[in-house]
């Protein structure tokens, strides 16, 4: 049975769309506290917004403080109704100095991405 012209067209469309979908990794678009900003000592949450949905069970951050110490953080979860936004509770008061956030995520298309940014506390 010959494929109809319409069916053939949709197959070509699917084939041409697949590579671009596979390349859609989760890139960090926004973060709170913002990269290179000055946050308050009361900051108790890191919020990271990505370009696509992420899997919280396979995503997380490491927060490193001014004396290169690891700052305790809770498990990452998704913002309600937004699978592109990862929320990480900070379990310690932040002393003044520079902080580095090293993040890693697995996006809903199962690709891994990672990166880092810094902020400081007055
Ligand atoms: Cu991807």
TrEMBL record:
Involved in copper resistance. Belongs to the CopC family. One of its GO terms (biological process) is copper ion transport. Its main location: periplasm. Pfam families: CopC. Keywords: Copper, Metal-binding, Periplasm, Signal. GO terms for cellular component: periplasmic space; plasma membrane. Residues 1-24 form the signal peptide. It is found in: Periplasm. The gene is yobA. It comes from Jejubacter calystegiae. NCBIfam families: copper_CopC, PRK10301.1. One of its GO terms (molecular function) is copper ion binding. This is Copper resistance protein C. InterPro entries: CopC-like, CopC/D, CopC_dom, Cu-Rt/internalin_Ig-like, Ig_E-set. Residues 25-121 form the CopC domain.
């Amino acid at each position: 049975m010959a494929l109809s012209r319409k069916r053939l067209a949709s197959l070509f469309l699917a084939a041409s769309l697949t590579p671009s979908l596979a390349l859609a990794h989760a890139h960090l678009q926004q973060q709170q506290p913002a990269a290179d900003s000055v946050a308050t000592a009361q900051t108790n949450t890191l919020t990271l917004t990505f370009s696509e949905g992420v899997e919280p069970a396979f995503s997380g951050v490491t927060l490193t403080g001014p004396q290169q110490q690891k700052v305790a953080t809770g498990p990452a979860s998704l913002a309600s109704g937004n699978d592109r936004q990862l929320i990480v509770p900070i379990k310690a008061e932040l002393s003044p100095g520079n902080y580095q956030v090293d993040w890693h995520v697995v996006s809903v298309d199962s690709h891994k991405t990672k990166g880092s940014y810094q902020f400081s506390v007055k």
